[in-house]
Amino acid sequence: MRKSLFGYHSRDVDQQVEMLEKEVRELRRQCLEQEGLISDLKEQLRRAKMEEDLIKEAIVDAKHLSKRLVQEAKEQATEIIYDAEKQITDQFDQFDRTMTTLNGLKDKVLAQKDDLTKELNDTLDRYKRVINEEDSQNFQLIDEAMEDTIQQSEEIVKASKQVIFLPKVKDDHDEVAILGVDDDIPVYSFQ
């Protein structure tokens, strides 16, 4: 600006004022833009904080859910292990009962075999003595006695023929009827 003798020229002042007004308008426009940007940033910050809160809640919920799932899994695993151990114990008990029954049956069969062997040996010895000591007339008696002995032997053999059924172990843990050691042995005749 140039100074005149009595002050500033009005044209220079007008230009300066106009330039300053233009700068003020530009600064106001920039201020409005900055306010809009600040408003947008505040909105973004508000949304980010909401998302952060949601994420925090989700993390807390996930932690609680994972703890609950782990606890439920532990409880289920404990229950499965208990059921498996019980099933194994039941199967071993069933096996022990079956083995006891089979051993009892084996002992009965062996006792019958021993009795039959002893009886047959006694009969054979008796016949040997009779043959050595007696005459031919006694052979008729021997034949009759032999017939009785053969009949008794056949009855003993029939009594010793058995069919043994081993019970199947059921998965539903129902009681299975098992022959006890003192039960009568089922006798079947075969022809």
Give your account of this protein's structure.
- The protein has 191 residues and is mainly alpha-helical.
- The protein has one domain (3-160).
- It is built from two helices and two strands; from the N terminus they run E-E-H-H.
- Helix 1 (10-133) packs antiparallel against helix 2.
- It starts with a strand and ends in a 31-residue tail after the last helix.
- The model has no long low-confidence stretch (mean pLDDT 81).
How does the SSE layout of this entry go?
Elements: E1 3-4, E2 7-8, H1 10-133, H2 137-160
Antiparallel strand pairs: 1-2
Helix pairs in contact: 1-2
Secondary-structure element pattern, one letter each:
EEHH
Whole-number total of structural domains: 1
Distance between the terminal alpha carbons, to the nearest Å? 146 Å
User: Percent of residues in beta strands?
Assistant: under 5%
Described by strand count, sense and barrel closure, the largest sheet is: 2 strands, antiparallel
If helices are DSSP runs of H or I spanning 4 or more residues, what is the number of helices? 2
Computed Rg: 56 Å
